[in-house]
Amino acid sequence: MKKKLFKILAKANKVLLPSFTKRKLDLAKASKFQLAIFAYKLWVTKNALD
After folding, report:
1. Structure pTM?
2. 13, 37 contact by CB (below 8 A)
3. Given its phi and psi angles, is residue 24 left (phi above 0), alpha (psi -120 to 50 degrees) or beta?
4. Interval 2-50: pLDDT, tens
5. Would you tell me the crossing angle of helices 32-49 and 2-16 to the nearest 10 degrees?
6. DSSP string, 1-50
7. 20 to each of 3, 14, 25, 27, 33, how far by Cα in Å?
8. CA of 32: how far to CAs of 2, 19, 29, 38, 50, in Å?
9. Are 45 and 10 in contact, with CB atoms under 8 Å apart?
């Protein structure tokens, strides 16, 4: 159940949230909001793969 929820969230993130890697965002120069989005997407992806 938990893994299925994270897979749904990962698909929603791909559609709704911006991709910073495609924009070639430098994480050293990213704002706190951009870092929060990046960390959230990383957390969801990690849990979807486990």
Report:
1. 0.78
2. no
3. left
4. 889 999 988 988 888 888 777 888 888 889 998 998 899 889 999 999 7
5. 140
6. -HHHHHHHHHHHHHHHS--TTTTT--GGG--HHHHHHHHHHHHHHHHHH-
7. 24, 11, 5, 9, 12
8. 28, 16, 10, 10, 27
9. yes
- Which two structure tokens, joined as six digits, stand for 22? 């495609």
Distances (CA, A) of 9 to 24, 31, 34, 44: 23, 23, 18, 7
What tokens does 36 get?
A: 């929060």
